[in-house]
């Protein structure tokens, strides 16, 4: 007779077993598995004896009293967050980018030929350069402001970084899109920098609204340790130069990508 | 679904009443939200306490969960269950809070609570024990302490999965949604949690496991 595994017995005990009837039949016939299940149950029963303190019959009323002064007049409707100016700006920028890439594709597809394929690639890359350049500029400004945030006085125990946090959330959405586009374009150097930036943006976006000076210092150290500001500045500068330069041939573009891989 | 100590009819009536309270809150009657807070605070507190292991943190989780639920109420689909929804918000916030506390503790690198203060701050020791003799009291406190340590040794995901499944009776899909995992991974997280708890507690619970390889042929 094949015994039940520990996982099967746990799944049975916790009510998530796929083969519940089969395990049940087996347990009826197998004393060893029954004993094993009893041992699992003994541990769980001991854990069940852990008490949860009773917060009191009026607990719900107390919670209400504590939160009521902090509630806004009216909760947001589901569509309201989408119409916040900061989100509209981000969504608008991404929409413009997609539309521009689409128009560029349509325009250059009219007369197919090797030169036009090069033009399509150039136009698309140029759009990416402009958009990513701006994105990196915004990210850099946010990170610098976060690095310079400080308590207003020695008595202040918390620093409010909610503004930076919200900006990081918006930048995070854009960053994901640009990183994926860079990967599709084969620009692994740029994708890698955007990947590093994404981790920092995630950290900031998931930080509490108010942090202690110690926590803020830890965030700063994380930013410094990743060297992200330096990388963002280098890539941003390079993108800016390419934006200002006349149209470059695809071969030159590849060499730029290779350069970025070194960052 | 969450395990509630109510009959099906009662649960349905509460869900319908919750839906009405949500509707009225969205229409601008802020006091309608009070009904929801007062009705669900105890359940959310129980979940939060079991996840965080202390009353102070649990109370903060409860407040924050109801604040966040209010702010996001417009995104709440009326066909859902408000109790389940606020539970999920509380579980997510409790995970964030545990992570944050862990980071702060690591930064401080101070001795653990029991090293520093003995059992003074152990939440388990603050709960009155009704054992009649000092010996039983000592054993009972020791067992509670060990159980609390075993729970604290679980990862945040494991503790969440165990609390939600074993104590709160949540479905695997719901646990998966909170942990942002697929169902199979969520189920495995429950298994891992029970296995770890068993390993830590079986020697002191009294029924020692027999040395046998599970799943083997006789």
What is the rounded Rg of chain B? 20 Å
Low-confidence stretches of chain B: 1-5, 112-132, 208-218
Helix content of chain B: over 70%
Class based on secondary structure composition and strand pairing of chain A: mainly alpha
Mean pLDDT of chain A: 78
- Provide the β-strand percentage band of chain B: under 5%
The count of helical stretches of chain B stands at 9
Largest sheet of chain A: 2 strands, antiparallel
Order of helices and strands of chain A: HHHHHHEHHEHHH
Output the radius of gyration of chain A. 28 Å
Q: Strand pairing plus helix content of chain B: what structural class?
A: mainly alpha
Order of adjacent strands in the largest pleated sheet of chain A: 1-2
- Element-level helix/strand string of chain B: HHHHHHHHH
| Subunit arrangement of the protein | heterodimer
Give the beta-strand count of chain B: 0
- The number of distinct β-strands of chain A equals 2
Task: Based on Cα principal axes, name the global outline of chain A.
Answer: extended
Helix fraction of chain A by DSSP (H/I, runs of at least 4): over 70%
Task: Explain what the structure shows.
The complex is a heterodimer of chains A (263) and B (218). With 263 residues, chain A is an all-alpha fold. Chain A is built from eleven helices and two strands. Chain A has helices at residues 6-13, 20-29, 31-48, 59-67, 85-108, 114-148, 162-184, 188-205, 213-226, 228-244, 250-261; strands at residues 159-160, 210-211. In chain A, strands 1-2 form a two-stranded antiparallel sheet. Chain A is extended and about 80 Å long. The termini of chain A are far apart. Mean pLDDT of chain A is 78; it is low at 248-253. Chain B is mostly helical and 218 residues long. Helices cover 70% and strands 0% of the residues of chain B. Chain B has helices at residues 8-26, 31-52, 55-71, 82-108, 113-117, 134-153, 156-167, 172-179, 183-205. Chain B is elongated, with a radius of gyration of 20 Å. Chain B starts with 7 loop residues before the first helix and ends in a 13-residue tail after the last helix. Mean pLDDT of chain B is 80; it is low at 1-5, 112-132 and 208-218.
């Amino acid at each position: 007779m094949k015994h039940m595994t520990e996982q099967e017995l746990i799944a049975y005990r916790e009510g998530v077993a796929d083969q519940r009837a089969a395990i049940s039949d087996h347990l009826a016939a197998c004393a060893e598995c029954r004993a094993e299940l009893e041992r699992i149950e003994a541990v769980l029963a001991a854990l069940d004896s852990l008490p949860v303190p009773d917060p009191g019959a009026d607990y719900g009323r107390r919670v209400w009293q504590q939160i009521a002064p902090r509630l806004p007049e009216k909760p947001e409707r589901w569509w309201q967050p989408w119409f916040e100016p900061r989100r509209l700006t981000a969504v608008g920028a991404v929409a413009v980018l997609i539309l521009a890439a689409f128009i560029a594709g349509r325009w250059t597809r009219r007369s197919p030929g090797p030169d036009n394929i090069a033009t399509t690639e150039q136009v698309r890359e140029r759009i990416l350069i402009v958009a990513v350049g701006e994105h990196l500029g915004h990210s850099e400004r946010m990170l610098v402001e976060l690095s310079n945030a400080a308590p207003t006085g020695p008595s202040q125990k918390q620093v409010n970084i909610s503004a930076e946090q919200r900006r990081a959330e918006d930048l995070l959405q854009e960053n994901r899109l640009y990183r994926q586009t860079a990967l599709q374009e084969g620009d692994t150097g740029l994708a890698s920098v955007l990947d590093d930036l994404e981790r920092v943006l995630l950290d900031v976006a998931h930080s509490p609204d108010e942090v202690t000076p110690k926590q803020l210092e830890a965030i700063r150290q994380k930013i410094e340790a990743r060297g992200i500001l330096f990388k963002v500045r280098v890539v941003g500068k390079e993108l800016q130069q390419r934006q200002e330069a006349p149209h470059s041939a695809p071969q030159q573009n590849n060499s730029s990508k290779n350069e970025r891989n070194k960052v | 679904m969450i395990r509630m100590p109510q009959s099906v009819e009662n649960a349905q009536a509460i869900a319908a009443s919750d839906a009405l309270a949500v509707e009225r809150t969205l229409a601008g009657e802020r006091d309608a939200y009070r009904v929801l807070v007062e009705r669900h605070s105890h359940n959310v507190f129980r979940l939060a306490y079991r996840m965080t292991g202390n009353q102070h943190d649990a109370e903060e989780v409860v407040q924050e969960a109801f604040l966040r639920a209010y702010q996001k109420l417009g995104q709440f689909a009326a066909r859902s269950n408000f109790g389940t929804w606020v539970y999920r918000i509380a579980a997510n916030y409790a995970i964030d809070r545990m992570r944050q506390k862990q980071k702060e503790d690591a930064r401080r690198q101070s001795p653990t609570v029991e090293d520093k203060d003995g059992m003074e701050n152990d939440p388990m020791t603050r709960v009155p024990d009704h054992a009649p003799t000092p010996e039983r009291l000592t054993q009972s406190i020791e067992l509670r302490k060990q159980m609390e340590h075993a729970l604290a040794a679980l990862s945040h995901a494991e503790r969440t999965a165990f609390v939600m499944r074993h104590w709160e009776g949540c479905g695997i899909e719901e646990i998966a949604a909170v942990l942002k995992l697929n169902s199979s991974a969520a189920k495995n997280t429950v298994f891992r949690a029970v296995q770890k708890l068993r390993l830590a507690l079986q020697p002191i619970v009294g029924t020692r496991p027999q040395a046998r390889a599970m799943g083997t042929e006789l």
